[in-house]
Amino acid sequence: MDAKVNYISELVNHLLAQKSEKDMEKALRELLTSSELVDVANRLQIFQMLEQGVPQRQIAEKLGVGIATVTRGSNTLKARKEQM
């Protein structure tokens, strides 16, 4: 098994082992820097807003991210839908 895949599996299992929202937040804060947390939260917001049909430029402005960041999120969603 590829080492990277194993690390991801370990991460997923660690997060799934958390018993409460508070424990999950603590685990994420221990694993990620504050900047990384903001990036992950923004990515989630990008996905949600794209799925709601919000225009990419509006998402970029609202979240204070570059249009390229939103476009990457859009491309990820498109690829996910194509795999279904």
Name its key features:
single chain; 84 residues; mainly alpha; Arc Repressor Mutant, subunit A; 2 domains; 5 helices
Strands, count: 0
* Largest pleated sheet: none
- Per CATH, which architecture of the largest domain? Orthogonal Bundle
Helix content: over 70%
What report would you give on this structure?
The protein has 84 residues and is mostly helical. It has two domains: 1-31; 33-84, Arc Repressor Mutant, subunit A (Orthogonal Bundle). The chain is 81% helix and 0% strand. It contains five helices and no strands. The model has no long low-confidence stretch (mean pLDDT 94).
Can you give me a brief rundown of this structure?
The chain has 84 residues and is an all-alpha fold.
Q: SSE layout and pairings?
A:
Layout: H1 3-16, H2 21-31, H3 34-51, H4 56-63, H5 67-83
Helix pairs in contact: 3-4, 3-5, 4-5
